[in-house]
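Q: My labmate handed me this sequence with no annotations at all. I'd like to see what the chain might look like in three dimensions before we decide whether it's worth expressing. Could you predict it?
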Amino acid sequence: MASKAVLITGAGAGLGLATAQALAAKGYQVHAGVRDPRKYPQLDAPGVRVLRLDVTDEASVAAAAEEVGAAEPGGLRAVVNNAGVIVQGPQELLPAEEWQRQFDVNVFGPARVTRAFLPLLRTAPGRVVNISAATGRVALPFLGPLSASKAALESLSDAARIELAPWGIPVVVVVPGALETEIFTKAATAAQAALHGVDPRQLTLYRAQLDAVDAATARQRLGSVTKAAQVVVRAVDAPRPRRRYYTSADARGVGLLAGLPAGPRERAITGIFGLPRRPGGVEAPA
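A: Here is what I predict for the chain of 286 residues:
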């Protein structure tokens, strides 16, 4: 009988929490990875087992893999690499530790987790489901670190898909759109903290652009986390999953920009955000 056990990282809130709940409702045994289990009473539900797992800590990942392995001798149906953070702001001004944090969670984290849990995926056999973002294929201004990290995750996914094919382990990429989650608020708070010590004169250089991006973001319609979680469930549940799933039309639409030549693509992005084309200028959004 195929395994009905799944590991999800970053399961304490947002898409991770909604996916854990949706999978448990379908009869899966969900191992919900979070950094501090005491902080997530919302995970106390039938079919959900809270697991201490910090994707940035090699020892934590190894201990979690050993614990899940003991509980699931039949292996895992899926590893869902959902844990992620957003680092935003002008690349010129972001401190090095913010770049490190971005890649440690979004790139090195999935690599650590996949490596540690692959023996359990071979046993089932199971699949890897990586939660990417539309910015992985179309880099957006002032989301350079996020865009770079998701582009790296997409490349890791494409390479792993070929490497793991001999064992029948699919590697799936799920691309959410903008969702009603706390991650954007957390990102804005972290950006303010990261830029707190920056020379105000440097920050002023980018003020018109940052204001334009804030205004465009405020107009953005956010999608349902519950509906996005159902797409992740399909990626876990499908007998023969697709390589890529989009959770919404806006995620698919951003992906279409990737097919444009660089010049038209950059002009489109500049127009969508109403970005100035000269220092201090402000453009009307397209």
